[in-house]
Design goal:
The chain is mainly alpha-helical. It has one domain (3-180). It is 83% helix and 0% strand. The N and C termini lie far apart (52 Å). 26% of the residues are buried.
Length: 193
């Protein structure tokens, strides 16, 4: 699994040659487990870790399905395996990055100089691993769907922009009625001041 982090191009080539949905799901489970471990180390609540594990796993399955639909409409190639594998390879790297940042944050020392060192190390680790994650996702998508970089960038920009807008509007639909007491008689209105 760690070859996805240290040798992403080899991992992409191997996944393309093997075409094993089992290995892809194991990679996604491993990435979800790393994210859950990060959540547990930050909160010390196993309930939160389990919620993060299940939520992140299901969210990645849903996003892979959306990628499959988007690229099928654009280029009429590829399927769920290709989108899930590309997404899992990229997500595994970013979940490892989140764990590294949490572990760096757990280094003892609260004085200003140590806080600055931990902040700089966390920033460098997160930036480099998120960059590697995004580029691995792009490259894997290019390889699996046999498309150019522009198509991949347009697909992911559109997908994540629409996901953000959907979440934002969904939250507004929940928050505004709570603020103004429009949810019905079962919930008391939230005071505004």
């Amino acid at each position: 699994m760690f070859d996805a982090i240290f040798f992403p191009l080899d991992a992409i080539a191997r996944a393309k040659a093997e075409r094993s949905m089992t290995k892809t799901l194991l990679l996604l489970l491993g990435a979800s487990l790393l994210t859950a471990l990060s959540a547990f180390l930050m909160t010390q609540h196993w309930e939160m870790a389990v919620t993060v594990f299940v939520g992140v796993f299901l969210l990645n399955l849903f996003i892979a399905f959306l990628i499959k639909i988007a690229l099928h409409v654009l280029i009429q190639r590829g399927g769920f395996y290709e989108s899930l594998t590309a997404l899992s390879l990229g997500y595994y790297i970013s979940s490892f990055g989140f764990l590294v940042v949490v572990l760096i944050g757990m280094i003892p020392g609260d004085e200003l100089s140590m806080t600055l060192v931990k902040g700089v190390l966390s920033g460098i680790a997160l930036l480099s691993l998120l960059l590697l994650s995004a580029m691995t996702l792009f490259r894997a998508t290019m390889e699996f769907f046999q498309v150019d970089l522009l198509t991949v960038v347009v697909t992911f920009t559109t997908l994540y922009l629409l996901l953000f807008i959907s979440l934002y509007l969904g939250l507004l639909k929940i928050v505004f009625p709570l603020m103004f007491g429009l949810m019905g008689s079962s919930l008391p209105p939230v005071p505004l001041g």
